Structures are given as structure tokens and as C-alpha cells.
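Re: [ENG-882] Designed sequences occasionally contain unexpected residues at chain ends

Forwarding the minimal case from QA. C-alpha cells:
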């Protein structure tokens, strides 16, 4: 019995480094794909190019992600989460709620990763197997935006006319929808979209504040 326990412990110890290596490889592939997509916006990046840049074998893409499309989804949202850090800095620098709405809307529409995320959303429509991956990343984006807005509103005494979870979802849905329309061939430009109008953040003095509970699936 003691021998079996020892063998099991040794087997788990041997498996741990392999597991860590697998996670490191996945992370490296995602980061490499995000970087290549940013360097070559709109261009098709092959599995061979991604693998070569990441220093791995091409079959590791399908081994870890199932398909190149799934890897592209992960990379697109990683790029977007990196980009949103700049948006958050601009938001914190705004002197009032009106400036916050303008600055954040303008910054989001110019994010380099936004078109890649729009492509990921479009791919999930035609390839249902990608939908869970897209949804997982969207929920993370919504939760992070909700927490950021909640902390900033509390610190500044700002309010919103709807629950913070709804505020975050509405804003990002509007921004991503605008990019999808452009990709679908709709005429127009970002200057014709009132993305700032999708935000209801207001200076708290004398304004109605609606907090409420977040919608289902959104955690604080």
C-alpha cells in the first residue's frame, strides 16, 4: 500500500511540470498570435507562421486549441484587454462625467484590437463551436468593465441611470456592433456614431442614481 502511494505521488510530481509546460505553451501561442495580428492588421496569419514565431510545432496549435480559429479568438480578446488599460487611464484622467463619456468613447473606437474581436464574433456565428470561447471572453470583459466603472463612480461620486452590469454590456455591444456593421459593408465612419451616448454616467450632484442588481450571469 505504501509503495502504491509513493508511486502515485511520484506520478503526480512528474505530471505537474508537463502541465505547467502546456500552460506556458498555450500562453505563448496566444501572445504571439496577438502580436502578429497587431503587426499585420487585417492580414491572414497562418498556423505555420504562428508556430514559427512562438518556437513550437504547428500541431501544437490544434493540440491546445482545437483549431486556428479558436486560437485567433483567444488572441483577439487578449489584445482587447491589453488595449482597455489605455482606455481606463484616460477615464481616470477625466475631470468630470461628461469628459469621461467623450474620452472613453473616442478611445474605444480607435482600439487596434477591436476589428480582430469583431472578426471573432463573426466567426462564432458561422462556427458554433467557437461560441463558448467567445462568450467566456465577453463575460470577462463585461465584469472587468463593470468593476472599473463601479470603483471610479464611487471614488468620484458619479452615478449611472442603469445598473453597472447593464451599462458595461450596453457600451461594449454598441462599440462592437458598430465595427461589425463596417465590416459588413455599411457606409459611414466613427464620427457618425454617438458611442458616448450609450453611457449614462453622470456627475452625482442632483442626479438620479440607479444601482440595482447586475443582470444574470454578471458577477460583481
Amino acid at each position: 500500500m505504501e509503495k502504491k502511494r509513493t508511486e502515485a505521488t511520484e506520478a503526480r510530481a512528474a505530471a505537474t511540470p508537463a502541465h505547467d509546460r502546456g500552460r506556458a505553451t498555450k500562453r505563448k501561442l496566444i501572445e504571439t498570435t496577438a502580436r502578429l495580428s497587431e503587426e499585420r492588421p487585417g492580414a491572414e496569419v497562418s498556423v505555420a507562421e504562428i508556430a514559427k514565431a512562438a518556437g513550437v510545432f504547428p500541431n501544437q496549435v490544434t493540440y491546445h486549441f482545437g483549431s486556428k480559429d479558436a486560437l485567433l479568438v483567444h488572441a483577439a480578446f487578449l489584445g482587447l484587454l491589453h488595449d482597455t488599460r489605455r482606455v481606463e487611464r484616460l477615464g481616470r484622467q477625466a475631470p468630470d462625467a461628461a469628459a469621461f463619456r467623450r474620452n472613453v468613447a473616442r478611445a474605444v473606437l480607435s482600439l487596434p484590437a477591436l476589428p480582430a474581436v469583431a472578426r471573432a464574433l463573426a466567426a462564432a456565428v458561422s462556427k458554433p463551436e467557437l461560441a463558448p470561447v467567445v462568450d467566456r471572453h465577453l463575460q470577462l470583459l463585461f465584469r472587468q468593465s463593470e468593476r472599473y466603472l463601479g470603483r471610479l463612480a464611487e471614488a468620484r461620486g458619479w452615478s449611472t441611470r442603469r445598473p453597472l452590469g447593464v451599462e458595461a454590456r450596453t457600451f461594449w455591444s454598441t462599440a462592437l456592433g458598430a465595427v461589425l456593421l463596417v465590416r459588413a459593408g455599411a457606409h459611414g465612419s466613427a464620427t457618425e456614431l454617438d458611442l458616448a451616448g450609450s453611457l449614462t454616467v453622470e456627475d452625482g450632484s442632483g442626479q438620479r442614481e440607479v444601482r440595482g442588481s447586475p443582470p444574470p450571469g454578471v458577477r460583481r
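QA comment: On inspection the terminal residues look reasonable. The first strand starts at residue 158 and ends at 159. Proposing we downgrade this to a documentation issue.
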